Amino acid sequence: MGKAEFGTPKYFSNQMKAKGLQKLKFYCQICEKQCRDDNGFKCHIRSESHLKRIKQVDSHVINDFSKQFQDYFISSLRTYHGEKKINANRFYNQLIQQKDHIHLNSTRWSSLSQFIQDIAKQGIINVKVEDESDQSLNGLDISYINNSSEEIMRKNNLQKHIDNDKSEEQLNMKLLKDQIKRGEQLKKDEEEEQEENKALNRPADDNPIKIKLGGLKKQDNTVNQPKKLNAFKVSKPSKANPLKKNVLKN
């Protein structure tokens, strides 16, 4: 059966079918040809051009395809997801949306799980199994491990900043605790001082206290008493001094 002529409806139908993503098992990586069904793929692998290229394939070609697939897988994982985890099967489905990518069936790995186990042993990715009883890739999460020198330096600097922040935070907490302790001590001292002042202060309605020094003075009862006269005592006439009289006259 020959090819459809250019411009015919059959030609445009074939072109539209070829644009979509088709089954990977019907793709020939050596010839870079996509077949639409099993019958077309069988016809292709029996063709003379395919057989000539197959004879030229050796271990170097397989290793080259394997290296290209691994580099494309890891670079896409690093670019689109970084170090965040993602389901392995979902990421692979995103990866094969591009038709010209290196297909897994042309590499030395027979399945995606075998490929993931291999690069996980190399320390390139982290693998986390959500459900160990699930043998499929639906419960398998992967994440990229960045081991570059720039990333290691960045992580070291980040860790230093975190340690400095922690030490500064601890110092601030210590200073804050000391301030709180001093404030509580000052408050306690003020309360004690107020209690002492309150004990020494006299109430407003209290009378003044008078203190007399020198003891009590004996009361004199003879001030207002009348003077007693002696009836038997006779008053004597006063004697005149002649000398005094003469002095006054002169």
Would you identify the CATH H-level superfamily of the largest domain? DNA/RNA-binding protein Kin17, conserved domain
Largest sheet: 3 strands, antiparallel
Our count of domains comes out at: 3
Oligomer: single chain
Helix share bin: 40-55%
The averaged pLDDT comes out at 76
> What's the tally of helices?
8
Helix and strand composition category: mainly alpha
- From the 3D structure, determine the CATH topology of the largest domain: Arc Repressor Mutant, subunit A
Distance between the termini: 199 Å
What is the number of E strands?
5
Strand order across the largest sheet: 3-5-4
CATH class annotation of the largest domain: Mainly Alpha
